[in-house]
Amino acid sequence: MIKVVCAIIQFEDKILIAQRSETMSLPLKWEFPGGKIEEGENKEEALEREIYEELKMKVEVNEALTSFEHHYPNFSITLYPFLCEVKSTAFLKTEHKEIRWEKKENLHTYDWAAADIPILEEIGEI
Ligand SMILES: Nc1nc2c([nH]c(=O)n2[C@@H]2O[C@H](COP(=O)(O)OP(=O)(O)OP(=O)(O)O)[C@@H](O)[C@H]2O)c(=O)[nH]1
Predict the structure, then answer these.
(1) Which of 51, 69, 98, 108 is deepest in the core (most CB within 10 A)?
(2) Whose alpha carbon is nearest atom 20 of ligand 1?
(3) 79 in ligand 1 pocket by Cβ < 6 Å?
(4) Nearest atom of ligand 1 to the alpha carbon of 75
(5) Could you tell me the residue range of the domain that residue 86 belongs to?
(6) pLDDT per residue as tens digits for the range 16-74
């Protein structure tokens, strides 16, 4: 089972969402930025590292939401979502096809990675 952390980065009424590139696994699916936890890291450290690598953003990691296991046809993950804050909305796109700030009420209109659906349901309740 691959352990993956992801960030629900909130700024005012918007959340930062990212579209995977054609060459990544789950091509063109939308996700919350993040990635695999590496050996020796805790979840918060992994998330801070991934967000800096992918977006050159410094995030403050706050509370954990509910984690879920998801089984894709050729791999399985446990996804650990965390609410995060930033001081500035600026980011640099390094790996993704697209990254944007989107209003929470519009998140359901995107083609999400299947593992993220329970997270969307949970953040609808915030
Ligand atoms: N970062 C992130 N990954 C997600 C989310 N939902 C989801 O199913 N995943 C999957 O969890 C894994 C995260 O690993 P990663 O972000 O380091 O992906 P990667 O490009 O290194 O994967 P790859 O090397 O297998 O292509 C990917 O297989 C990705 O498809 C999500 O919301 N955020």
Answers:
(1) 51
(2) 24
(3) yes
(4) 28
(5) 2-123
(6) 999 999 999 999 999 999 999 999 999 999 999 999 999 999 999 999 999 999 999 99
- 45 C-alpha vs ligand 1 centroid, how far in Å? 17
35 lines ligand 1 (CB under 6 A): yes
CATH number of the domain encompassing residue 47: 3.90.79.10
Helices (H) and strands (E) in the chain, counts: 2, 8
Residue percentage of the chain with pLDDT more than 70: 98
pLDDT digits (tens, 9 = 90+) for 62-98: 999 999 999 999 999 999 999 999 999 999 999 999 9
What distance in Å separates the CA atoms of residue 84 and residue 73, rounded to the nearest whole number? 30
With 0-12 CB in 10 A as exposed, 13-18 as middle and 19+ as buried, what is 101?
A: middle
Beta-carbon count within 10 A of 45 CB:
14
Number of domains making up the chain: 1
